[in-house]
Design a protein that fits this description.
Layout: E1 2-6, H1 15-28, E2 33-37, H2 43-49, E3 58-64, E4 67-69, E5 76-80, H3 87-96, E6 99-104, H4 108-123, H5 125-128, E7 133-141, H6 146-157, E8 168-173, H7 176-183, H8 197-210
Parallel strand pairs: 1-5, 1-6, 2-3, 2-5, 6-7, 7-8
Antiparallel strand pairs: 3-4
The structure holds adenosine-5'-diphosphate (ADP) and magnesium ion (MG).
The site of adenosine-5'-diphosphate has 16 residues, from helix 1, strand 7 and helix 7.
Length: 218
């Protein structure tokens, strides 16, 4: 079973959007997928509750007493986490995930906050005694802005406070497709194929990574 954690201490950066779309992607491929929503706001659980019966089922999972409770034979478990998660609570989540996906919004303030968050994640490695595999994804990028044009270049060059290169995967534009698909309990991989073509292309580097051994701790 591959466990994928979606996290960032910042609210509104796209954790639930990424979690539900990752879940939907693997479900429509025919994998047995479970989704654990650990945020009391319950965005991912709400999404699951309106998912149509015509779509491949995604199972509800949870974390209780520090343990994951997932249906048997699950191939992929996606864990959506609340904002403002730090310290011991963060370590408890990190213990449950093999792969971490961190959405970040492309403002200088958000990127700096994400740098510190990733630094904190790396500092937990000793605590949890294993390698961390993580990727960042720039999300809600408005393509008409100059900032967007520079973003790819900037993120690619960025160094974390610990000197490591930012493990930066892809840019996802701001698109109504995410909102419209979510309103139906679907991912963009299951919704309006012609309209979502460009968005699905933007996901490819992340999906290739998630589907390969590169995203698993050695
Ligand atoms: N790429 C995107 N394009 C358009 N809207 C987005 C995108 N990503 C997220 N959103 C919207 O932004 C809001 C916050 O996203 P959400 O996934 O709930 O963030 P988080 O879970 O980190 O708080 C939601 O209304 C969501 O629909
Ligand atoms: Mg959320």
């Amino acid at each position: 079973m591959h466990s994928i954690l979606v996290l960032n201490s910042k609210g509104g950066c796209g954790k639930s959007t990424l979690a539900t779309n990752i879940a939907g992607y693997f479900a429509q491929l025919g994998k047995r997928v479970a989704l654990a929503d650990c945020d009391p706001q319950g965005s991912s659980r709400d999404w699951l509750s309106i998912r149509p019966s015509s779509a491949t089922e995604i199972y509800d999972a949870s974390i209780r007493g520090g343990k994951l409770h997932v249906p048997r034979n699950t191939d992929v478990i996606v864990i959506d986490t609340p904002a403002a998660t730090h310290g011991q609570r963060l370590a408890n989540y990190v213990r449950l995930g093999q792969t971490m996906v961190i959405p970040l919004m492309p403002s200088p303030i958000d990127i700096r906050a994400a740098e510190h968050f990733i630094d904190e994640l790396y500092s937990l490695r000793k605590l949890i005694k294993r390698k961390i595999k993580l990727a960042t994804v720039a999300n809600r990028v408005r393509e008409d802005t100059l900032a967007a044009a520079k973003l790819d270049y900037y993120l690619d060059k960025m160094k974390l406070p610990n000197g490591q290169k930012l493990p930066y995967m892809t840019v996802l534009r701001s698109s109504q497709n995410y909102i419209k698909a979510a309103e139906k309990g679907l991912s963009i991989f299951e919704f309006a194929p012609a309209k979502t073509l460009y968005d699905r292309e933007q996901w490819q580097p992340l999906l290739r990574w998630l589907s390969s051994k590169r995203s698993l701790p050695g």
